[in-house]
Amino acid sequence: MQKKIGIAYIYLNRFVVGADDKKIRVYNYNTLEKVKEFEAHLDFIRSIVVHPKDPLILSCSDDQTISLWDYEKNFSLVRTYDEHKFYVMKIAINNKDYNMFASASMDQKIKIWSFTSPNSHMTLEGHTKGVTSIAFCPLNDKPYLASGSDDRTVKIWDYTNKHCVFTFEGHEDNISSLCFHPELPILISSAEDHTCKFWNVNVFKLEETKVFGYETIWDIGSQPSQNMIALGCEEGIIVLKMGSDQPLATFK
Q1: Does residue 50 sit within a domain?
Q2: Any idea what the CATH number is for the domain that residue 198 is in?
Q3: Buried b (16+ CB within 10 A) or exposed e, 82-114
Q4: Is residue 61 part of a domain?
Q5: Domain count, the chain
Q6: pTM of the prediction?
Q7: pLDDT tens digits, 192-217
Q8: Of 3, 50, 59, 185, which sits with the fewest C-beta atoms within 10 Å of its C-beta?
Q9: Domain that holds residue 99
Q10: Nearest by Cα to 204 from 245, 148, 155
């Protein structure tokens, strides 16, 4: 099962970090000054996301909860979501509906929530081990949510009807991260088998497998305007351009 030391996301001229010490810290990235620090959870913080429009931040934790914070009100706690029964590993906001977000938990469940209610309005079940990662598809014609699990599979769900559209198999260890390409019908997955796989979600087939030699890839991010993908690995950072055989840059 993956362990993350810290997670950072940028909003305004700040970046926010969650860590294993249960605290959230906020820094000014121009001055590097720490502007806020508070204990946010009772156990390791696994994931943080910033709302694209509203002054809201979500955090999730091994304490089995998701917390919603208002950063315009000095990070006051707006709401706690507490339906999961084991570690909450990942949260993701739907980029086609900013009122919807999903959570992945080691209780083998994926839950769909809204920012306006403390109760989930959908639960997706099908993985046989804990769910470690989730990602919403940005393409308008695909109401898809991808999930990755310690059962070594990646599932594609239609979140409008709770239907599992397809299950990708091929990784030989726990799934560690997922990311949809922002413009192409490609889902990128990584696992503790040290591989990165590129799946076509139009025809549901594996397009390519890459091994970079930087051990496990724990996180994947995309940059749409320049067609770039960043991989956060156990032993460094890799920047890729889709379609290229070699990384654009590596950092150790």
Answers
A1: no
A2: 2.130.10.10
A3: ebbeebbbbbbbbeeeeebbbbbbbbbbbbbbe
A4: no
A5: 1
A6: 0.91
A7: 999 999 999 999 999 999 999 899 99
A8: 3
A9: 83-251
A10: 155
